[in-house]
From TrEMBL:
Listed CDD domains: crotonase-like
GO biological process: L-valine catabolic process
PANTHER family, per the entry: 3-HYDROXYISOBUTYRYL-COA HYDROLASE (PTHR43176:SF6), 3-HYDROXYISOBUTYRYL-COA HYDROLASE-RELATED (PTHR43176)
Source species: Roseateles saccharophilus
Lineage of producing organism: Bacteria, Pseudomonadati, Pseudomonadota, Betaproteobacteria, Burkholderiales
Pfam families membership: ECH_2 (PF16113)
Name listed for the protein in its UniProt record: Enoyl-CoA hydratase/carnithine racemase
Cross-referenced InterPro entries: ClpP/crotonase-like_dom_sf, ECH_dom, HIBYL-CoA-H
Any one GO MF annotation of this record: 3-hydroxyisobutyryl-CoA hydrolase activity
Ranges of residues in domain Enoyl-CoA hydratase/isomerase: 23-356
Keyword annotations from UniProtKB, A to Z: Hydrolase
């Protein structure tokens, strides 16, 4: 049995088990809300590639380690403090992080065996990247899903330009620009989740997957589905109507103007949220999601790889919106990012366009072989 689990290198940040036909991966960085390090990305990739070629493994499940007495977190994203340090140090492993993370996202979306994402608690950023490609995305009433990258001067990556673009109407633009967290009912309604299992059933579900009889992939899926329940009611139609009314506008300035002229609390709160985000990176984000509707996943990931390179290098680390956003949120924790420029009206269209020019010839792109 031991040869079913290859050597892992990330200091116990990933735990691997095999139960019958099921390979289980546990993200084991609970004090960091299971945020992904480069080592974790490499270990998950190693496991998935190894298990893809082993007929004994018929399905894979991924979950986050819990924190005693605290709410659960599946995965709160990438290790943003590492981003900040690596950008200032000129550390080349920053480039490796995104190349390997996006490769992992692509692998999950194209995985040849059922991949079950147990998305209990916080699922944000990189956590969405390792769950949205799953064949079965399982949520509870504790699930909180978001792509909050504009809050740190980034854009919704890990395939977010593609999977948010698949949401109905203009929900994708709303989620991408605001970073708003949604619950299980909305996630299932909008195509970002599949199955709801009540929190009171969660421990028993995980116990069954870990230690119950799991002779086939069908049995793994049945183990989840026998506990499935109706998700709590999703957002009212009025919210969808508001989202479409405002976020269908042709550009960022028009979206803000539309919200500013609406006389309701939802519009006021949404407008206030957008005024806190990086104007430049909101413009990049809006363009990404709208392009994402016309792109295949592999092409979207290649585009995101271009964008994330520019996010750190187009202006240099000293003037990067992403480095500044991480500083304000996670390093100095003053929650007062100094965006350059500070307003949407000052955003340079030429600079936004420069983000969409690849720094690599097609034959040398780090994700050139994704199909």
């Amino acid at each position: 049995m031991n040869d079913l689990i290859p050597p892992l290198l990330a200091d116990g940040q990933i735990l691997a088990e095999v139960n019958g036909c099921l390979g289980l991966i546990t993200l084991n960085r609970p004090q960091a809300l299971n945020a992904l390090s480069l080592g974790m990305i490499r270990d998950i990739t190693t496991l998935l590639n190894h298990w893809a070629g082993r007929p004994e493994i018929q399905a894979v499940a991924v979950l986050g380690a819990g924190r005693e007495g605290k709410p659960p977190a599946f995965c709160a994203g990438g290790d943003i403090r590492f981003f900040h340090q690596a950008a200032h140090a000129g550390d080349a492993t920053l480039e490796d992080f995104f190349t390997e993370e996006y490769r992992l996202n692509h692998l999950i979306h194209n995985y040849p065996k059922p991949y079950v994402a147990l998305m209990d608690g916080i699922v944000m950023g990189g956590g969405m990247g390792i769950s949205q490609g799953g064949k079965l995305r399982v949520l509870s009433e504790r699930s909180k899903l978001a792509m909050p990258e504009t809050g740190i001067g980034l854009f919704p990556d890990v395939g977010g330009g593609w999977f948010l673009a698949q949401c109905p109407g203009h929900v994708g633009e709303w989620l991408a620009l605001t970073g708003h967290a949604i619950s299980a009912g909305d996630a299932i309604e909008w195509g970002l989740g599949d199955v709801f299992v009540r929190a009171e059933q969660w421990a028993a579900l995980v116990e069954d997957l870990r230690h119950g009889e799991q002779p086939s992939a069908e049995h793994v899926v049945a183990t989840v589905m026998e506990r499935a329940d109706l998700a709590p009611v999703s957002a009212p139609k009025a919210t969808m109507d508001r989202i479409d009314q405002h976020f269908s506008q042709p550009g960022l300035a028009a979206i803000l103007a539309s919200l500013a002229t609406a006389d309701d609390e939802w519009a006021r709160e949404t407008h206030a949220t957008l005024l806190k985000r990086s104007p430049t990176m909101m413009a990049v984000t809006l363009e990404l999601v709208r392009r994402g509707r016309r792109l295949k996943l592999a092409d979207d990931l290649r585009l995101e790889r271009d964008l994330v390179h520019h996010a750190f290098h187009l202006r240099g680390a000293a003037r990067s919106e992403t480095v500044e956003g991480v500083r304000a949120l996670a390093v100095d924790k003053d929650h007062a990012p100094r965006w350059q420029p500070a307003s949407v009206a000052e955003v340079d269209a030429a600079e936004v366009a420069a983000f969409f020019v690849s720094p690599w010839p097609a034959a040398e792109h780090p994700l050139r072989d994704l199909s």
